[in-house]
Structures are given as C-alpha cells and as structure tokens.
C-alpha cells in the first residue's frame, strides 16, 4: 500500500461535522474572547515577580538592619538572594511565554514550548529544594525580628537538627524518584504522573524529538 | 484558496466568514490529534479560540490556510503533549466519549482502517507532515507551515512512505 493511495481514503473520511457543531464552535469562540492556554503561566510569572520583589525588599531591609549580628545578617542575605531568584525565574518565564506565537512555524513554536516546559520543570525543582533548605534561615530571621533573640545562641542543636531535616526533606523526593526510575518500580510511574507538567525528562524528550525531526 | 485581500483583520464578521470557509481544516487537524469525539470538539474549539486571539495580527496578503494550519497544528501538538496523557489517566472508558474523532463510514475499506491506525501510530510532528501531505498542500506551503526546508521535507515524506509500507504489511499480516 502506498501513501498516495491513502489520499483517496483520507478524502473519503467522514468527519461527522454537523452544522450544529460549527455554530457552537463559532459562537463559543467569539463569546469566550479566546481563552489563552498559556494565561496561567503568564499570571504565575507575574505573581512570582511580585512576591519576589516584596520579599527582596523585606529581607534587604532586614539584613541591612542586622549587620551587627553576622549570622542573622547572613540568613537575611540568603533569603534576599532567594527572593531575587524568584524575580529572575518570573522574568525568564515571562520572556519565554511572550515569545510564543502560535502563528509562527510549527517547529520553532514547539521548540519554544518544550524549552518553556523544561524551564518550568527545573524552576519547580529548584523552588521545591529552596523552600526546604531556607526554613532554618527563615527561622533565624523571624525569631530575631519578632523576639530580638539570636536563635544560634539559644538553640544551636535545634537549628542544626532543623537544617539536617530540611536538607533531607529537600533532597529525598528527587533522589527517591531517581532511584525508583532506575529500578523501574511502580512508585516511579506514580511520581511521574504526579510530576506530569514538571517533568524535565518529558521536556527533554520533546526537544530531542523536535531536533530529530528538523535533522535532514 | 487565494489570499483574502478584501478582509480587514480584527473584524468578527470577517473572522467568522474565514473560519466557516476553513472549518474542514480545523476539524481534520483536531480529528488527527484526538481519539474521541468529545476531545475533538474541545480541540477544535481551542484552535478556533487561538485563531480568534491571533486574528488581529493576520496579514490579509498572506494565505489564510497557511496561517490557520500553523495555529491549528501548534495548538493540536501542544494539546497532544499536555492533555492527552492527563486524560488517559483520568477519563474512564465510555463508548460515546471514545467514538473515533475521525471515523470511517460503516463499510470502511482497508485503506481507511490502515490510514487511521497509521495516523495514530505517528509522533506529533510526523502526524502534522502526514496530514499536510494527505491534504495535498504544496511542498513550499508545508515547508512554510512546519519551518523546515523542502529538501528535508522530501526526505521525510519518503521515510513516511517507507514506514507506511511496513505498517500496511504488518496490518495485513495480523488480520
């Protein structure tokens, strides 16, 4: 069987397009004013930047007021840097989203979308890890800000234990995922399903597929 | 279809007219990237919505079908990558819902069955190329829609033909 022979079959396929469906398509399209699939990503990026800016200001003000206590100032600087990281993530997401124009050639847009997905996945994992390891730094600054107490002097053991627990909490899921995938267990499949939109592997597979298609 | 030089981009009436003229294109793309009728209608709706959003920037000097194909295929491929695995996990089987998106007639011939199976077995980009080829779009237009050279396209079409031959042989062999 040849591809050209199938053109006849293709032309004969019944799409079952009814007048009712077309009317629905047109009326809903116009009334919805074109919902944008990427709108949540765009809103998320702007939200990231606003939250990041607010925290950057707060932590910047905090650490500059506590330069006399190096550890507290250090914790404030770490949180300040993390807030700037949030702004950067938001800006990169925004640029990547705004560069997507569905009227451009298919390969170019699919590559941009795959890169956006890869960036989303990487930033998700980075933010997850940061959320855990920044807990001790946040504790130090909050206790100092609210009670004027330096936690390192009062509860050093608690702080160190907290840091270890948070480090494990931040690293455990990605390590568990990696281990489960290598063993090919059901847990890996469940985690993959949970991380569907945050899977770096899926994004990289899509980029590889596009590169392969573009290759002569 | 000739470029619609008389159209004023951004007008609802013009958009409705153009989309009505090209409804077959929208449904063929949507049907090629979905398995069920409900999904096909959703995807067709999404394609139309994206086209409406982009319509103010449409250049009437250019061919409307090329412009719409780009949007339709981009939306469909994105849908296939994002939505299909999610729906596969969450939607239980329902005969009504899983009615084939592009269905052949009751006395479907071998060609139709093989074609449907072959389309579903292809990756999203090859599926786009196959669809455009079956729609008998000129190579230059396919190249413009997909964003690859015509030389590369010829190679890809030849490979597609080889894969079809092998697929058809297997399909006949298992019957």
Written account of the structure:
The complex is a heterodimer of chains A (216) and B (175). Chain A is an all-alpha fold and 216 residues long. Chain A contains 10 helices and no strands. Chain A has helices at residues 3-12, 19-32, 39-65, 70-98, 106-133, 135-147, 151-154, 156-183, 186-194, 200-214. In chain A, α3 runs antiparallel to α4, α4 packs antiparallel against α5 and α4 (70-98) crosses α6. Chain B is an all-alpha fold and 175 residues long. Chain B is 69% helix and 0% strand. In chain B, α3 (37-54) crosses α4 (64-90), α4 crosses α7 and α6 packs across α8 (150-174). Chain B is globular. Residues 1-7 and 89-99 of chain B have low confidence and may be disordered. Classes of the chains: A mainly alpha (216), B mainly alpha (175). At the A-B interface, α1, α2, α5 and α10 of A face α1, α2, α3, α4 and α5 of B.
Please outline the helices and strands.
The complex is a heterodimer of chains A (216) and B (175).
Chain A: H1 3-12, H2 19-32, H3 39-65, H4 70-98, H5 106-133, H6 135-147, H7 151-154, H8 156-183, H9 186-194, H10 200-214
Chain B: H1 12-21, H2 23-32, H3 37-54, H4 64-90, H5 110-121, H6 124-134, H7 139-146, H8 150-174
Q: Outline of this structure?
A:
Chain A has 216 residues and is mainly α. Chain A has helices spanning 3-12, 19-32, 39-65, 70-98, 106-133, 135-147, 151-154, 156-183, 186-194, 200-214.
Strand content of chain A: under 5%
Count all strands of chain A and give the number.
Answer: 0
Order of helices and strands of chain A: HHHHHHHHHH
Low-confidence stretches of chain B: 1-7, 89-99
Helix content of chain A: over 70%
Distance between the termini of chain A: 25 Å
Largest sheet of chain A: none
Indicate the proportion of strand residues of chain B: under 5%
- Low-pLDDT parts of chain A are none
């Amino acid at each position: 069987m040849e591809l050209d022979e199938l053109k006849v079959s293709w032309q004969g396929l019944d799409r079952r397009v009814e007048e009712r469906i077309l009317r629905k398509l047109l009326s809903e399209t116009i009334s919805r004013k074109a919902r944008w699939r990427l709108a949540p990503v765009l809103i998320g990026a702007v939200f990231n930047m606003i939250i990041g800016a607010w925290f950057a200001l707060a932590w910047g003000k905090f650490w500059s007021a506590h330069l006399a206590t190096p550890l507290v100032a250090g914790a404030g600087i770490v949180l300040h840097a993390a807030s700037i990281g949030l702004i950067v993530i938001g800006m990169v997401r925004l640029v990547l989203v705004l560069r997507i124009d569905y009227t451009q050639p298919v390969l170019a847009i699919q590559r941009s979308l795959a890169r956006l997905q890869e960036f989303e996945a990487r930033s998700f994992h980075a933010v997850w890890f940061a959320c855990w390891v920044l807990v001790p730094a946040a504790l130090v600054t909050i206790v100092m800000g609210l009670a004027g107490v330096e936690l390192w002097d009062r509860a050093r053991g608690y702080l160190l234990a907290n840091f270890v627990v948070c480090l494990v909490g931040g690293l455990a899921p990605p390590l568990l995922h990696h281990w489960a995938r290598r063993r090919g267990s059901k847990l890996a499949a469940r985690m993959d399903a949970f991380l569907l939109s945050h899977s770096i592997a899926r994004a990289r597979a899509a980029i590889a597929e596009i590169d392969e298609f573009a290759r002569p | 279809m000739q470029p619609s030089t008389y159209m004023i981009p951004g007008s609802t009436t013009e958009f409705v007219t153009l989309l009505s003229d090209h409804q077959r294109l929208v449904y063929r793309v949507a049907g090629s990237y979905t398995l069920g009728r409900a999904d096909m209608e959703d995807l067709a709706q999404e394609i139309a919505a994206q086209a409406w959003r982009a319509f103010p920037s449409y250049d009437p000097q250019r061919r409307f079908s090329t412009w719409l194909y780009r949007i339709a295929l981009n939306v469909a491929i994105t849908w296939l990558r994002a939505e299909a695995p999610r729906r596969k996990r969450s939607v239980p089987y329902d005969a009504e819902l899983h009615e084939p998106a592009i269905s052949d007639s009751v006395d479907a011939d071998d060609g139709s069955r093989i074609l449907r199976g072959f389309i579903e077995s292809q990756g999203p980009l090859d599926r786009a190329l196959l669809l455009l080829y079956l729609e008998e779009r000129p190579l230059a237009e396919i190249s413009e829609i997909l964003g690859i050279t015509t030389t590369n396209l010829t190679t890809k079409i030849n490979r597609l033909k080889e894969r079809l031959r092998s697929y058809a042989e297997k399909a006949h062999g298992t019957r």
